[in-house]
Amino acid sequence: MNTSNKIALVTGGSRGLGKDMALSIAGKGIDVLLTYNSKKEEAEHVVAEIIKMGRKAAALQLNTGDTSGFGDFFGRVGTVLTGTFGRDRFDFLINNAGVGIHAPFAEVTEEQFDTLMNIHFKGAFFLTQQALPLMADGGGIVNISSGLARFSVPGYSAYASMKGAVETMSRYQAKELGARKIRVNVVAPGAIATDFGGGGTRDNEQVRAFVAGVTALGRVGEADDIGGVVAFLCTDDAKWINAQRIEVSGGMNI
Prior knowledge:
With about 250 residues, this protein is of the alpha/beta class. It contains eight helices and seven strands, in the order βαβαβαβαβαβαααβ. It has a seven-stranded parallel beta sheet with strand order 3-2-1-4-5-6-7, sandwiched between helices. Helix 1 (about 15-25) packs parallel to helix 2 and helix 4 runs parallel beside helix 5 (about 155-175). The protein is globular and about 50 Å long. The protein starts with 6 loop residues before the first strand and ends in a 6-residue tail after the last strand.
C-alpha cells in the first residue's frame, strides 16, 4: 500500500499518546487530520509541526463522548478533506481519544461509568460507523486499548471493561470490513508517562517504581514507545496484519 497522499484521522491528537501517533504517522509520509476536545492551541501546534515535516495537516474539534455531534463533525471532515488535502476520502482511523478515571470497583459511580463508556466504547463504535462512508477501501483502523484489558490493577475496573469491549468490537470490525480490504487492529499500551488520568505514571515516583518493577524491560513507558507502532500499522509493511491485539508495554505483568 503506497502511502503517497494517504490521510490518517487521529482522535485526541493534540497531546500525549495521540500527539506522538500523529507525528509518527506524518513521519511515514502520511497526511494527518487530528481532533481535539478542548486544547485547540496545542492541536494547532501539532498541526504546525506536521506541516514543518512536509506533510499536510489540519485539526478539528470533536467530543468523542457525544454521538449527537458526529454528523456535523463528518460534514466538517468532508470540507477539510477537499479543501486542505485535495481528496474526498481518508485512509486510516485511529480511535485514540480518551480519559482516565481511577476508582475502586465498590465506589465507581454510574456517572463515571457512563463517561468512560460514552468516550471509550460507544463513541469509538459509532464514530467508526459514521466514518465508513468517508473511508477509502484498502485502509485501516487502529483502536487503542490498554494493557489493563489483559491484567488487573485495582481501581481501573470500569476503564478496563470498556477497553475489553473495544477489543471485541475490533475483531468484529475486521471480519465485517474485510470485504472492503480495511484492516482493523488494536494497540494496547502499558503504563505510559503522560498527563493521562492525572499524570500519576509520569509524576508519582512510587507509581513509576511499581510499574518499572513489574515490567520486563524495567522502566515506565514513554509516549514515543507507542506512536511508531500505530504508524507502522498504517503502512504497507503491515498489510497482512489484521484483527490483532498488539500490546506495547515493555512486558508488563508477564
